[in-house]
Amino acid sequence: EPSIGDSGCPERRLWLEGTPAQLGCAATGNPPPHVTCAKVGDTRDHPPGTPAVTSNVTWVKPGATQDPPRVTPTVTRAHAGTYQCRATNAHGSATRNVTVAVEYGPATVTLRVLPSANVTRGTTFSLDCGAEGVPAPTYSWALPPAPNLRVAPDNRSVTVTGATAANRGLYTCTATN
């Protein structure tokens, strides 16, 4: 009867967006089991209640019987989720869930100036920076040199108190992970 262990099929995987999407789960058994994996809840082109072997990921199990090779897709954020891998041979089957997390670089960087980008001398304003990313991005700034700038502890915002001519210029926020 097939068996899927942690050493051949870790329950947590970390993929990087833009790399080839591959998940290998090694199973033991005699005869060698056939291994398939499907994203839990992925029922595209399948009747409700039946497992779907996703076409978005190439599942590789060296030495096992497998489906014909497919073009390996590139990892996207949509690949994140839980997959169920099933090893089957003439004597039975075994299943194992694998959780896939997808890391990606900062995207959709936003910079807001509050109350507005038009600043009157002597007023206070702030700039807030944000970005999507996994792991969470960190922030850095390139700012006009002025003594009345205060950067927040998390570096996501800058406050200018009592704006002067020294506060004119380009404010650049960089998000990295």
UniProtKB/TrEMBL annotation:
It comes from the Eukaryota. One of its GO terms (biological process) is cell adhesion. One of its GO terms (cellular component) is plasma membrane. Pfam families: Ig_3. InterPro entries: ICAM_VCAM, Ig-like_dom, Ig-like_dom_sf, Ig-like_fold, Ig_sub, Ig_sub2. GO terms for molecular function: integrin binding. Residues 2-101, 106-177 form the Ig-like domain. This is ICAM5 protein. It comes from Calyptomena viridis (Lesser green broadbill).
